[in-house]
Amino acid sequence: MRVLVIGASRGLGREFVRQYLAGKAQVTATARQAEQIAELEAAGATAFTLDVGDAVSASGVAWRIDNANFDVAIVNAGVYGPRHQGLETPSETDFDAVMHTNVLGAMRVIPQLVDALAPGARLAVLSSRMGSIGARESTSGWLYRASKAALNSVLKDVSLQLAGRATCVAFHPGWVQTDMGGAGASLTPARSVADMRRTIAALTPAQNGSFLNHDGSAIPW
Ligand SMILES: NC(=O)c1ccc[n+]([C@@H]2O[C@H](COP(=O)([O-])OP(=O)(O)OC[C@H]3O[C@@H](n4cnc5c(N)ncnc54)[C@H](OP(=O)(O)O)[C@@H]3O)[C@@H](O)[C@H]2O)c1
Predict the structure, then answer these.
(1) Does the beta carbon of 28 lie inside 6 Å of ligand 1?
(2) Each residue of 78-89: pLDDT tens digit?
(3) What pLDDT does 71 receive?
């Protein structure tokens, strides 16, 4: 099995790499820093530098993965941004940083992945339940929420374009103990990623274009 993980320096992305390597997959992974690339390579992955927020860096993805035939591609890179509780207008800098990473990053990278997917591949973006409008009960982190709602829209369009060729889903990984989720989160990265790997392996073409919890249950858009 061939797997691509975009944004694998730490947290959930790094755990996807660890678990897929342990399962004997061939893993290609990206990170922003040279030391992290070296670490990923030492662990057994093929790795290259990618900053999804940088147009020049992101434009180089296609040639790096030419003819790769990935069975699984995971677009994981993301940032949370300001921890607003109410309707505080974000600064332009914060808005651009969050939207460029979480939305434009996916719109830069995914079109370059299409030709590198094996027939019947599975493509997952790491969204968040916080991006759900149907399940919304809080306004905390409204910039992050807006970015993940926009990412969900991006994923839906990708699923329409790739229908019949790949199964594309948006994931909520749960609330996970990473730098983003914090130490008080309810799930370990190992558990969240094990669940998502199991869900990815069991995906059927009928689930193309769906928004799923890590355990495979559906989340309202
Ligand atoms: N943890 C949770 O509870 C939770 C809940 C819902 C959704 N999620 C989503 O799950 C994904 C992974 O989250 P996490 O908890 O593992 O977060 P994390 O520990 O903060 O890690 C974020 C990852 O994204 C990468 N990244 C950020 N900006 C990037 C850029 N411009 N280009 C390339 N890579 C970039 C980081 O790389 P650097 O090391 O270079 O910064 C890092 O590998 C995110 O999309 C997040 O929104 C997480």
Answers:
(1) no
(2) 999 999 999 999
(3) 98
* CA of residue 128 to ligand 1 center, whole Å: 11
Got the DSSP string for 181-217? T-TT-SB-HHHHHHHHHHHHHH--GGGTTEEEETTS-
The total number of structural domains that make up the chain: 1
User: Ligand 1 within 6 A of 76 CB?
Assistant: yes
Domain of 41, CATH number, reads: 3.40.50.720
> Model pTM greater than 0.85?
yes
82-126 residue pLDDT tens: 999 999 999 999 999 999 999 999 999 999 999 999 999 999 999
Is 126 near ligand 1, meaning CB less than 6 Å away?
yes
The alpha carbon of residue 209 and the mean position of all alpha carbons in its chain are separated, in whole angstroms, by 15
Q: Is 128 in the pocket of ligand 1 (CB under 6 A)?
A: yes
CA distances from 107 to 42, 63, 213 (A): 30, 17, 22
| Probe target for ligand 1 pocket from 49, 108, 178, with the most ligand atoms within 8 Å of CB | 178
Atom of ligand 1 lying closest to residue 52 CA? 32
Range of the domain at 122: 2-213
> What is the secondary structure of 149-189 as a DSSP string?
HHHHHHHHHHHHHHTTTEEEEEEE--SBSSTTT-TT-SB-H
